[in-house]
Design brief:
globular, Rossmann fold, 12 strands
Amino acid sequence: MMPMPFTDQMGRGVYLKQWPPQRIVSLVPSQTELLYDLGLGDRVVGITKFCVHPEKWYRSKMRIGGTKTPDFKRIRKLEPDLIIGNKEENTKAGIEQLEKDYPVWLSNVTDLNSALNMMKKVGELTHTLPRAEALARKIAAAFHAFRLPEHYAQKRVAYFIWKDPWMTAGPETFIHALLEHCGFVNAIQNARYPEVRLPALARAKPDLILLSSEPYPFREMHIPPIRAVCPKAQIRMVDGEYFSWFGSRLAGTPDYMRSVFSS
């Protein structure tokens, strides 16, 4: 049997000895959830320790380490015929190590359009294309219908992802693209993930400051030092999964934003 050729979002050829693949390992939480929603069930045999959705997979599937620290011995035991990863969430060294033994398909998601393209490509790769296309259409329609309330449109936003040091999401990131797609203006754009000292935050003059639940788990106790330098800004805690997970969770992002930015 000739290997089946596919092209990943990095433009690389990926050759499967068996199609459709029957033993898939996912290295990215948002794509793990996508595989579940595409109905792949027992065909997914390994996930990372951060793949918390769906919960029943988190409890039942073998966990093969972290996104940046895969356990190569565990992966070898699973004998995967396909590994699905992501350019940003996985390390180059880890992917290169896995590619020595397995077909590795990489996504490269930078905005909503590339997220929808990823879903369709994964559908083609796993022989679930009709379901993937339907999901992509649903998400595209939901975002097309979404509009921020007028008093939020063009507001300057700082989206924090980390503390010690304080860091925000900047240009050329999926979070930045999603914020701009929804009508916000990113207040801090000097790097992809810039470190931001609080005096510099004040000079950026954000109207709205979002503290994400991940990767750093911000809590209410983190608000006072920010409030001290930006007393006029609105500060909101947000569920980072709806801003940074670029798989099927995006279907719920417009409704989630309506709930957060309704007042």
